[in-house]
């Protein structure tokens, strides 16, 4: 069948050239069949169209068989089937470990020391810790006992009392935040003066003074 088929005549009838693709052959064949079919032309159908249609179908079947056997149409070059492309795989590469900087640990240590120093400074200036090394401003172990209110305290006792001179107060407490002849302010705490001598005070727990109590004790009643 393949040896007797006139493929050149088939290409001429379909308006194709040797070397066309099988898809082009199929489309052209179907279009030509629709043109020659008696049902389409009706009463105007040519009796010879049936013979042409039969010859065309025989040529198309022979070309299809040739294509199945050789992988090409008669008169065309052999086209080997393409090998399937390997499926691309998306592989996520693990992120490379970033080497730690040699100075990172040192910087963290310095930052920690700076924060600790800042907390200590705030505690000192806020009066949380007494300068003698204890909380609450009470006398530390080994500190001299508080002087009685009737006895002016001074630098020798380490405590401020009624009658303590302003110079001794400055030596014990340092420079006040606000100062005038009648009163020195040390944050929330204050010391009042009368003629250059301590006459009253208030020692806050937030910034305790070097005194025996938050306020001076009331004066003892005079004995007859």
TrEMBL record:
<dbReference type="InterPro" id="IPR001623">
    <property type="entry name" value="DnaJ_domain"/>
</dbReference>
<feature type="domain" description="J">
    <location>
        <begin position="9"/>
        <end position="74"/>
    </location>
</feature>
<feature type="region of interest" description="Disordered">
    <location>
        <begin position="135"/>
        <end position="158"/>
    </location>
</feature>
<dbReference type="InterPro" id="IPR036869">
    <property type="entry name" value="J_dom_sf"/>
</dbReference>
<protein>
    <submittedName>
        <fullName>DnaJ-like protein</fullName>
    </submittedName>
</protein>
<dbReference type="Pfam" id="PF00226">
    <property type="entry name" value="DnaJ"/>
</dbReference>
<keyword id="KW-0143">Chaperone</keyword>
<feature type="compositionally biased region" description="Low complexity">
    <location>
        <begin position="143"/>
        <end position="158"/>
    </location>
</feature>
């Amino acid at each position: 069948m393949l040896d007797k088929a006139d493929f050149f005549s088939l290409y001429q009838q379909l308006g194709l050239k040797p070397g066309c693709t099988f898809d082009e052959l199929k489309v052209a064949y179907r279009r030509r069949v629709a043109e020659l079919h008696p049902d389409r032309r009706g009463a105007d159908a040519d009796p010879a169209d049936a013979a042409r249609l039969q010859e065309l179908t025989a040529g198309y079947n022979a070309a299809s068989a040739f294509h199945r056997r050789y992988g090409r149409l008669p008169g065309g070059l052999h086209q080997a089937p393409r090998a399937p492309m390997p499926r691309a795989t998306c592989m996520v590469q693990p992120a490379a470990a970033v080497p730690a900087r040699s100075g990172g640990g040192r910087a963290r240590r310095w930052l920690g020391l700076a924060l600790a120093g800042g907390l200590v400074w705030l505690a000192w200036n806020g009066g949380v810790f007494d300068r003698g090394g204890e909380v609450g401003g009470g006398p530390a172990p080994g500190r001299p006992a508080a002087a009685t209110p009737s006895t002016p305290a001074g630098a020798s006792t380490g405590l401020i009392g009624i009658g303590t001179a302003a110079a001794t107060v400055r030596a014990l407490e340092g420079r006040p935040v606000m100062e005038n002849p009648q009163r020195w302010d040390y944050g929330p705490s204050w010391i009042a003066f009368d003629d250059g001598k301590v006459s009253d005070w208030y020692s806050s727990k937030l910034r305790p003074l070097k005194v025996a109590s938050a306020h001076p004790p009331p004066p003892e009643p005079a004995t007859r």
